[in-house]
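Q: What residues go here?
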């Protein structure tokens, strides 16, 4: 039988992620941001990944989108989780503190993912799967979703396809995530 209990470490990760993302909302909505990272962790757990990967799912955006640092992640949850979060984090600012262009951030992230291990790629795929699910639900509701992005529809869809391709691997759990992402992307493309 599968263990249904949450470890204290996983509970601490959920609490810390919720606190880090407090007051943040999904782009262009009133949905608390924590809903996204909780969904990513749920996807990873359902796919059968170990606790460090599920925790990285909860924390995958704390370094990129909050004042939290990789050192904070490492101190609280260990080097393995921090390493996974590091691969998931884009460098949004240049050396001068200015926001980097969208395409530069995405290309650099794709290059980093190409060198990442399967656990890091799983977190990224779970992130993309949930993002695509959110896009699909919004499109079906008639929400003008493409206006929310820093790139046009074609570039956003190109990025999702490129990231899904970059995250492919031999682990059957990874293959299942890739298939789910491809299926969801096809539905998004068909809607609009």
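A:
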């Amino acid at each position: 039988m599968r263990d249904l209990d949450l470890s204290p470490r996983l509970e601490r990760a959920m609490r810390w992620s919720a606190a880090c993302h407090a007051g943040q909302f999904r782009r262009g909505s009133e949905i608390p941001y924590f809903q996204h990272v909780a969904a990513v962790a749920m996807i990873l757990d359902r796919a059968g990944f170990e606790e460090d990967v599920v925790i990285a799912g909860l924390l995958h955006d704390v370094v990129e989108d909050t004042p939290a640092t990789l050192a904070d992640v490492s101190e609280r949850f260990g080097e393995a989780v921090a390493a996974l979060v590091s691969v998931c984090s884009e460098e949004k600012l240049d050396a001068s503190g200015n926001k980097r262009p969208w395409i530069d951030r995405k290309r650099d992230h794709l290059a980093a993912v190409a060198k990442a291990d399967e656990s890091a790629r799983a977190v990224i795929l779970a992130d993309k799967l949930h993002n695509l699910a959110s896009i699909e639900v919004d499109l079906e509701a008639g929400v003008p979703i493409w206006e929310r992005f820093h790139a046009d529809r074609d570039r956003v869809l190109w990025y999702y396809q490129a990231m899904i391709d970059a995250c492919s691997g031999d682990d059957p759990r990874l293959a299942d995530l890739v298939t789910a992402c491809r299926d969801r992307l096809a539905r998004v493309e068909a809607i609009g």
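A: Context that may help when evaluating the design: DSSP finds ten helices and no strands in the chain. The mean pLDDT is 93.
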